[in-house]
Records
---
Amino acid sequence: MELLIKNGVVYDPISGVNGEKMDIAVRDGKIVERVNERKARKIDASGMIVMPGGVDIHCHIAGSEVNTGRLLRPEDHFRDFERKTSVTRSGVGHSIPSTFTTGYRYSRMGYTTIMNPSMPPLEAKHTHEELSDTPMVDKASYPLLGDWWFVLEYLRNNEIEECARHVAWIMASTKGYAIKIVNPGGLEAWGFGGNVHSLDDQVPNFCITPREIIRGLCRVNRLLNLPHTIHVHTNNLGQPGNYVTALETMECVRDLASDDKPAIHITHCQFSAFKGDDWRTFASGAEDIADYVNCHSHVTLDMGQVIFTDTTTMTADGPFQFGLYGLTGNKWVNHDVETETSAGIVPFRYRRKSYVHATQWSIGLELALLIVDPWKIFMTTDHPNGGPFTSYPRIIAWLMSKKAREATLKRVNSRARSRSLLSSIDRELGFYEIAIVTRAGQARALGLKSKGHLGVGADADIAIYNVNPETTDPSRKYKAVRKAFKRAAYTIKGGKVVVKDGEILRHVEGATMWLDVQSLEPAKITDEMRRRFRTYWTVEYENYPVTENYLEFSKPIPVRASV
Ligand SMILES: [Zn+2]
C-alpha cells in the first residue's frame, strides 16, 4: 500500500516544482508527506523524469459517434491490432481503437485522466457503457447542450436561472462533467439542411442567435459554479476565414469572466484559425489568435494538432462533416440525434504534400508556440480528428525542438513551407512547460483538484519517463525524448504500478467522474414538459436519466450551485 519514488527529477508545475531531485511518497492511492522507507515498495527513478499522470481535456473515445466510426472502418482495425497477454485483452484500431486498447495505449504513455468531449444527452447510456469499458484511466464526458431544445427555449425567453437549474438536472441525469457547445445554432439549422454562418445569424424556429446561446450558457456555467468553463467548438469550424469567428467567440464572453477563472475554452483551435476566402487563398490565422490570447486572460485553448496519417474525423458538427464529405468523396455517416444534436463521420488522410493539410499542421504548432503562457493552450489532436492520440510523443518533440520541426517542415508542400511561420519561431518548450501543456494546465482548466499535480493529498497518478534532463538536450536529442514519452518507464494509477517500460503490468478500472450539481431549488418539471418529452424524444422523461448504478465505478463530484 506504500510506495516511494526515489531520486527522480520532478516536474510538478502546480506545486511550483521545476526539475528538482526529490522523492515522492504514496499511501493508499494518494500522495503523502512521507512513508516508512523500510517497508514501502521503492522505485529508483534516478536519471528519470517524474510528472503527474497525463490529462487529456479533449479526446473522442466513447459513445455512438466513436462506435459508428468503428463500424464504418474495418480497414482501421485490421492494420492495427493488439494481441492479448496474460494481463490485457486483445483489441484493434489505429484511429478509433476499441475500448480496452484505448485505455492501454493512454496508460503506456503515462496518461491517467481523459475527457470524452461529445455526448448527446440521449445517448449518455451508451457513452457510459463504453467509458466503463475503458480501463486504466479516469474519465468524464461533456453533454452537448448548445442546441438542446429546452436550453434554447429558456435562453430565448431570457430565463437564465431556470435554464441553469435545468442544466443542473441534465448534468446529473447524463452523469456529465461540463457544458459542451458545438457550432451553436448550426446543429439545429442542420436539422433542416442549413447552417449558421455568423454569431448573429438567427437559428431557425428559435429566434435566438449563436452569440445568445454562448453568452447564455456561459452565464449558466457561472451560476452553477461548474469546475470547467463552457467548452466550445466554434461556428464555421474548418472554413477558410473562420479565425474571425474564433476571435468574435472569445470576445463575446469577455465581460462575463471573473478575475480568477477563465470564461471559455475554445477547443481544437487549429480548426478555427484559418485565414483566406477559399481553399486557394487559405492561410494561417494563428498569429491573430495568439495576439488576442496573449492580451486576454479569460480564454483557454487546446491545439487540435494535425498529424500526417490516416485517421477518422467525427464531430457533432453535422454540416461541417457534410462539407468534408463533399470535399473528399469518402464514405460518410450523418446522424441526427432526435431533437438534440447532429453528428457526422468521414475517414480522412492528412498528406504532407497537400498545401492545406501542411498549413493546418503548421497552424497547430504556431498556436502552441506563439501563445506565450503555456497555461492557456494545451496539447491535443482532437483525437481522432487531427490524428490519433498515440501521436502525442511526436507533438512533444515538435514543441521541444526546432530541429524536429525543421525535419518535418523539409518534407511538406513547398508553398506551405514557404508561408509557414515555423521557420521564424525559435521557441522550444522545456520539460516544465511540457508538464503544463500535457497535464497541469489541463487539470487546472478542468477544475480537477486532485489531478495534474503531486502535492500532498493528490491522487497518486504518476508518470515516470526514462529521459535524463541533466544529460539530454531535447532540442538536439528529440528522438530520445519522443521514445521516452511513447513508452513510460512507469505509469502509476491510484498508487498502483500499472505500466513498466511501456508494458501493461496490471489491469485497473478507472472511475467515471461526473458533477452532482446541487441547485438551491430543483428544476421545474411540469406536466407540459413531460408531455413535450413524449413529443420531442423517443424516451420519456422518467427513463431519460442515467442512474448511478449504471456506472461501473462512479465518482460524483459535488458542486454547489448559486441558483
Ligand atoms: Zn472534438
Note: The CA atoms of residues 29 and 494 lie 4 Å apart.
---
Amino acid sequence: MSMNERYDPHSIEPRWQRRWEEAGAFRAGRRPSAEKRYVLEMFPYPSGAMHMGHGRVYTIGDAIARHLRMRGYDVLHPIGFDALGLPAENAAIKDGQHPATRTRENIVAFRAELKRLGYSFDWEREIATCDPEYYRWNQWFFLKMLEKGIVVRRQGKANWCTGCQTVIANEQVVDDNRCERCESPVVEKVIPEWAFRITAYAQQLLDGLDRLKDWPERITTMQRNWIGRSDGADVDFAVPGQDPIRVFTTRIDTIFGCTYAVLAPEHPLVERVTTPDRLAEVRAFVERMRRTDVLERTGENAPKEGVFTGAHAVNPFTGERVPVWIANFVLAGYGTGAVMSVPAHDQRDLEFARKYRLPIRVVIQPARGDRLPAGEDLEKAYTEDGVLDASGPFTGLGSAEARRGMSAHAESKGFGKAEVRWHLRDWGFSRQRYWGTPIPVVYCDADGIVPVPERDLPVVLPEKAIITGTGEPPLAKVPEFVNTTCPRCGKPARREVETMDTFVDSSWYHARYLSPKDDSRPLDPEMARRWLPVDVYVGGPEHAVMHLLYFRFWHRVMRELGLVHEDEPARRLVTQGIVNGPDGRKMSKRWGNVVTPGPMVDRFGADTLRLFILFAAPPEKDIDWSDEQVEGLFRFLGRVWRIYHARQDCFRAPDAALPQATGDFLELRRRTHRTVKKVTEGMEGELKFNTGIAALMELVNALYACEPKGDADRAAVREALLALATLLSPFAPHAAEELWHEVVGPAGRDRLLADEPWPSFDESLVAADNVTIAVQVNGKLRGEVLAPVAAGEAEVRALAESEERVRAHLSGKTIRKVVFVPKRLINFVVG
Ligand SMILES: [Zn+2]
Ligand SMILES: [Zn+2]
C-alpha cells in the first residue's frame, strides 16, 4: 500500500476521528495503575458557532492532554456545556425561540465543531448544565449550604441592570456603572436576595493564593486585590449632640497628624451634622456626586474636591476639634465611609489640604534623628512607616509598634479597636430570570421559608414560560410551577420564582465530570480521590475574579462536605491570550474581521488550524489572525507529506545500522534528538509549543537536505521520520497518525499513535553542539569532520583518521607532527 502523495486533510481527518472513537482512545481510567493527570479547559457557553477563542483554548488543552497521554499518564480530559444563562434568554426575548430549544440545537452544532477539530475529549463524560440531572446538584448544594449557614437570605443592596431587568454580580458591573452584558446603566436597589457567605472564606481564599505557585501571578494578584484585606483600626470621632463619626484607618500611627475628617457624600451622618448655614451648598454637592460616575470621582487623576459641613469632630487621641468635610474621593462602600485625613502622610489628603488651606502636620519621621520639612514646606506626603513624632505618649515608637499600641489604647478607652476590613462582598446569587436553576425553597404563610426536601429534587424548570424580559420573573407567571404545597404543613405554598446565577453551575462542574451519571450524589468521593485536583486548567484571564474565585470557594465547601480532599481545585492555571482579527483588532462583526474555525477547517483541515494556533505565539500571548501564516502551515504539512512519500524506501531499513561516527547522517540523527529535546521542553514548564513546532520545521528542512545511500543512512532517516510523526502528534494529530502508520507498516496497524510512548532522546547526541573542523594534510584541505565543540586533539584526530578521503592521503606516510587549532582545524604534517 503506497501512501497518497498529496496532503489531503479532508480524507484523513474524519477517518482518524472515527478510529479514535471506536478504540475509546481518550477514555479516562484506561490505565488504572498509572499516575493520573486531569486536564481541563473552561467549558463553553454553546452559542451558535465556535469562535476562534474557543479554538485556541481547546487546542492548547488538547496538546497538553495528548502529550501527557503519550507520557504514560492516565488522562482525564472532559468536555461539557455551560448551557444556562442570559444569552439564550435574551435571544428568546428578541425572536421568541425557547431557550431550551435554542440551547439544545446549539449544543448539537457546537459538539460537531469540536469533534471536527479532533480534540481528545472523553465524550462519555459530557455534561450540560441545563439538564435537570446536572442542576439538581446545584439545588442539593444549596440545601447543604443553607443548613450550614453558608447560604443566607438577606436584604441586599443589589446591582440592578436596567437593561437585563435583573440583579447582576458586582463583578459584572463594569466601567461607568454599566452592565457587562448589555451596557445598560446599573442602579442600586434594596431587595431580599439569596447570598453565599463567601466572605466567611476570605482569609482562606487569600492564604490559598500563596500556594498557587503555578497560577499566573497577575491572576493571583487580581484575586488578592479583589479579596482586599486591609488591617487597620476603627476610631470614633465624637460629634457633640450626634452619633460619633467612625473612621477606618490603616494608619492609626499617624492620627496625631489628623487635621480634618471626611465623610462620603452618601454617608448617613451628612444631613445630620451639617450646620444650617452650609446645608444648601452641601446638598448641592451631594446631588452632583450622586450623578457622577464612581470611577470618574475616585480616579487617580480626578481633581480632589469637597465642601465643609460646618461641623467639627473630636480626635479622641488629641482632644482636638477638627473640621468635618465631605469629598468626592471617599466612598460609602469602603471601610466605614468616613476617613481621618492626615495630609502630611497621605498624598490625596495633602492635595485636598493644599486646595482648601487646611493645616498640615508632620508626625512621622523617616528615622530617629531625621527631620522632614515642616508641613507647609513638604514637597509630597511622606507615606512610609517611620518613627512617631509630636504624638504625645507614642512619640518615638516605630510605626508598626505604634499601630498595635494605639489600637489597644483605643480599645481600652472604648473609642476604637483594631479591625480588618475586606473588599470582598458576599455573593448574591438570586436572579429574576428564567433560564437558570430554580432555587429549591417554598414560601408558606405559616412556616415562612421552607427548603424543598432533598428527596423532592430536582425542582424542574418548567418548559412553559413567557419570557418578556421585563417586570416580574418569568417563573412567577407559571402558576403550575408557583403553586405547590408546603413540605412542612401541607398547606398551599408558593415556590421561589428566582433562579440561580449561572456562575453556580461553573463553580463545581470540574467535579461532576468525575461521575457524571451518578444519580445518587453530585460526585463520587472515590473518583475525587483519584482525579482531583485538576492538574492543568486552561481558560481566559477575564475570569480572574469571578469564576476562578467562586471555583476556589466552592471547592472549599465541597471539602467541608467531605466530598473532596484538598482545598484548591486546580494546581496549575494556563490563561490564554486573545485571537485578534487579521487587522490586529479584536474580532467583531462591526469591523468585519471575524474569522471562525469552521470555514478554516473546511479550507485547510483541522491540523493546519491547530498548528497555526499553537505556532503563532506562546499560549498566554495575544495573536493576530494571519491568512499567510495559515497557508504557510498548510504548505508545511504538505512538505512533511512529500518527504514521507519520497523516503518510503527508508521505512523498512534495518534498525541495527544507525550511523554513529561522522557525516551528514550523524548530523541528521543529532538534529532528530535535539528536536525531541526541544519539543519535549516546549510541552513542559512554560509551554512553548511554538518553539517546538519551529524545531520540527528545521528537522523537515534537514530531511530534505540529505540523500540516503546505504542502509545506515536509511535507518537514520527512518528514525527522524518516526520522531517527526510522534512529535507532531499533539499539534496535528490526524496527519501524525497517518504518517506514523505509514512508517510502522502493517505490523503497527492495530496500534494508535495517540497511545504510543513519547520519544526520548539520547543525551550524547544532544549534549554538545558540533563544529565542523577542517582537516589538512601538509597544509592542503583534504576533508572535514564534525566534532563536539569541546573535543580535544585526540578525539578530533581519531575522527579525522577515520575519514575515507583523509585516510587516503595518510596511508603509507609517517605522521611527523600534528597541528591542532580547537574548533577550527587539524593539520597532519607527513613525510
Ligand atoms: Zn444588562
Ligand atoms: Zn407550611
Note: The pocket of zinc ion (ligand 2) is lined by residues 444, 446-447, 450, 486, 488-489, 491, 493 (CB under 6 Å).
